[in-house]
Amino acid sequence: MGEIVRTLPVIIHRAVESRKTAGGAHAIIGGRAESDTGGSPVGFFRRLFGGGRAVDRYVTYYVRPKRCSEVLAVRVDRYNDLSLSDDGKSYFVRKVARGERCPFPAELLIDFNGSRVEVHVDVQDGELVDEAAYQAYLGQRA
């Protein structure tokens, strides 16, 4: 057990000191990420963990369940909520939304292509509404 603990920092240290300079990429020097274009350490971690713009990651849908006046906001994370379809090339998500004052749930089914772009939206036991209807509901509730 002590052997693993002693070698782990060596492995991490070697990974941090590795350099990748082909094609204008970054290099790790002294624990800091530097780039030919003046990048920052934060940029290194975004590239490492796949971080992108938060705007592209989340999509909000607005649903009104049948027999209810309540409008619900349903947020879909394109990188965590999606499931791979049986064909192995596309994605889908199924979300069930139930309001505080409405006992009837609405089911939101969304299909995405391989690039995680929305292809088809279906709402069962409810209807898809726009953000203006959601804002009107919030204004009416207050």
Q: How would you explain this protein's 3D organization?
A:
This protein is an alpha+beta fold and 142 residues long. The protein has helices spanning 2-17, 41-49, 54-57, 131-141; strands at residues 26-29, 32-35, 58-65, 72-77, 83-84, 91-97, 106-112, 118-124, 126-129. It is globular. Residues 1-38 have low confidence and may be disordered.
Protein topology:
Layout: H1 2-17, E1 26-29, E2 32-35, H2 41-49, H3 54-57, E3 58-65, E4 72-77, E5 83-84, E6 91-97, E7 106-112, E8 118-124, E9 126-129, H4 131-141
Basic shape: globular
Give average pLDDT, whole number.
76
How many β-strand stretches? 9
Strand order of the largest sheet: 5-6-7-8
Order of helices and strands: HEEHHEEEEEEEH
- Determine the fraction of residues in helical runs and give it as a percent range: 25-40%
What structural class is derived from the secondary structure elements? Answer: alpha+beta
**Rg from alpha-carbon coordinates:** 23 Å
Largest sheet: 4 strands, antiparallel
Are there runs of 5+ residues with pLDDT below 50, and where?
1-38
- Percent of residues in β-strands: 25-35%
How many helices? The count is 4
Tell me the span between the first and last alpha carbons: 60 Å
